[in-house]
Write a structure and sequence with these properties.
By secondary structure, the protein is an all-alpha fold. About 75% of the residues lie in helices and about 0% in strands. The chain is elongated.
Length: about 160
């Protein structure tokens, strides 16, 4: 069963894993010490979880052995889900960037006289976690866009 999966399925699995990793990094970031402790971003977790559920639905729909009209309907649903996933991940990234831009600017670009007070190890760790979160979400969104172009079923020889 595993060997029979198409490249599109594997690519969607990578997107799901990147999304889970980004949610974990986000959770660690807001629960750890530093500048962004407790600073949750609205709907980021909701968008990520919905995207993961949609990816799971795409993968499950591709496993169904359906023919005829039902197959066409499933392909349309799968296509819509594969379009919605990068939209949700991009929305999550935009929300994260807009919520964190001012804080990152404060940490990295403060005046020289307050820089020592601002750039504490905890704040630098928090900022690094935020940047890692942005990279994971951005990669997941880009990979989701790319995954939408791959077929989910292997062609029978």
């Amino acid at each position: 069963m595993i060997k029979k999966q198409s490249f599109g399925i594997w690519f969607n699995l990578v997107v799901a894993v990147l999304t889970v990793v980004s949610l974990i990094v986000y959770g660690v970031n807001i629960s750890g010490e530093g500048y962004f402790k407790g600073a949750s971003v609205g709907n980021l977790i909701l968008y990520g979880v919905i995207a993961i559920i949609m990816l799971a639905a795409v993968i499950v729909l591709a496993q169904l052995q359906i023919t005829g009209t039902a197959q066409k309907v499933m392909e349309i649903i799968s296509g819509l889900l594969r379009i919605a996933v990068p939209v949700l991940l991009t929305l999550a990234l935009v929300n994260l960037v807009s919520a964190r831009a001012e804080g990152l600017g404060f940490i990295y670009f403060s005046n020289a006289d307050v820089l020592q007070e601002v750039q504490t190890p905890a704040n630098m760790s928090s900022a690094t976690g935020t940047i890692a979160n942005m990279i994971c979400l951005g990669a997941a969104a880009i990979f989701a866009m790319i995954a939408a172009f791959f077929t989910l079923r292997k062609k029978d020889a």
